[in-house]
Amino acid sequence: MSARTNKPHEVVERALELSRADGCVVIADEYSTANLRWAGNALTTNGVTRGRTLTVIATVDGKKGTSSGVVSRSAVTADDLEPLVRSAEAAARGAGPAEDAQPLVTGVAQSPEFTDAPTETSSGVFADFAPALGESFARAREGGRELYGFANHEFVSSYLGTSTGLRLRHDQPNGTLELNAKSPDRTRSAWAGRSTRDFKDVDPAALDAELATRLRWAERRVELPAGRYETLLPPTAVADLLIYQLWSSSARDAAEGRTVFSKPGGTRIGEKLAELPLTLRSDPNEPGLECAPFELAHSSGGDSSVFDNGLPLQATEWIRAGELAHLVSSRHSAGLTGLPVAPAIGNLILDGGQDKSLEEMVAATERGLLLTCLWYIREVDPATLLLTGLTRDGVYLVENGEVTGEVNNFRFNESPVDLLGRATEAGRTEKTLPREWGDWFTRAAMPALRIPDFNMSSVSQGV
């Protein structure tokens, strides 16, 4: 390959040719991003970026086992390949046997588009969205509110090649929109966010109207003390809590007695966690939330292993009709625990609620709180998965089926596992953008949940 040849699939092939290790995995991630930012009802910046990251994983067999070395570099060209491959091999030879060592994956059919050029995004993804956003700025000015926020669209084409013959590719579009509306004196704030693949299903006018309503609710202020309140958690808040629960669902950690999913002598698989018939699942082929159908592991850790690269992913139910069904496991941790192989997947869906909108759930509330979103979520106790965090951008008082005002923000202390067990109602499942984890996990669909006794542990002074 000449120094001028820089196609991603050729870079993968050349890196594999250069390898002197016993095994080799190469991942080329070609990415492009387009973004818009605005403040005070005016566009401030926009831009497009492109780049490449190449990850080389070398495996070396020894008398005591197989070791691995992983090296990643950005902006890699043909001239950078051999030093990168040699660095990965040196890292492998300098490491001890890898605990998660497994034979590299074989027998997966080549992706038909493996040799095609990467898919890229551009500012054209905002062709319809940007003019509609401008119209929203005008309406906001007339209504006495200011809009702030950003829209980001990313396209990542991942090329995976291995010394065992795998040649796989996945194209992942990912778009996010976050919109804040503020009163001119900045005492009132409301937030809305959306996840999208192409910005064709995002309506700035509808979001602006939603935020205008929330700012009107906030014109009346009610101070409430800390305590337990009947609370309606919107889909974005439910997503943030259950994503953290998924991240804490390690089969190995549970089997070793370190998590909320542990029990003496094993795990809680088969145990009922929720009275409602809720199913928490992931599916690479979920319409509108499609994600990689095979394992793409750039490093090993927890229940993810570089040796599993290319492993086909299947639809997985983590909780089935309220019962714990699977915990996240690699081939290695599955061997340790005796549980099925169940790698993490890049989306999360909660089903099983009623076909009710959040507005209908509000109308059925005698007295309670309606949240907008959660923020600054941190773990307090892994044994119970107790989390703490803050409410943000609007907590509203519901009385006799109507929102009657805004209340102060709170710090909360809750476990998502306990919340699933105490939830008395779940609404309609809909696509949502997690507020806290939106930089890392965006493909989620959740219902609103009614919690009869959500623990607002202290009052927060945040807006």
Topology:
Blueprint: H1 8-18, E1 23-39, E2 42-62, E3 65-74, H2 81-94, H3 129-142, E4 146-162, E5 167-182, E6 189-196, H4 204-217, E7 221-222, E8 227-233, H5 235-247, H6 251-255, E9 262-263, E10 266-267, E11 279-282, E12 316-320, E13 323-324, H7 331-337, E14 348-351, H8 358-363, E15 367-381, E16 386-399, E17 402-407, E18 409-414, H9 416-422, E19 425-426, E20 430-432, E21 444-446, E22 449-460
Parallel strand pairs: 7-17, 8-15, 14-21
Antiparallel strand pairs: 1-2, 1-4, 2-3, 4-5, 5-6, 8-22, 9-10, 11-12, 11-14, 12-13, 15-16, 16-17, 16-18, 18-22, 19-22, 20-21
Helix pairs in contact: 3-4
Number of helices: 9
What's the gyration radius in Å?
24 Å
Largest sheet: 6 strands, antiparallel
**What share of the residues lie within helices?**
10-25%
DSSP strand count: 22
What's the N-to-C terminus distance?
A: 57 Å
Number of domains: 2
CATH architectural grouping of the largest domain: 2-Layer Sandwich
**Order of strands across the main sheet:** 3-2-1-4-5-6
Uncertain residue ranges: 1-5
What would you give as the CATH superfamily of the largest domain? PmbA/TldD superfamily
Task: Quote the CATH topology of the largest domain.
Answer: PmbA/TldD fold
Structural class of the helices, strands and pairings? alpha+beta
CATH class of the largest domain: Alpha Beta
Shape: globular
Q: Approximately how much beta-strand content do the residues carry?
A: 35-45%
InterPro entries: Metalloprtase-TldD/E_C (IPR045569), TldD/PmbA_N (IPR035068), TldD/PmbA_sf (IPR036059)
GO biological process, one term: proteolysis
GO molecular function, one term: metallopeptidase activity
Protein name: Peptidase
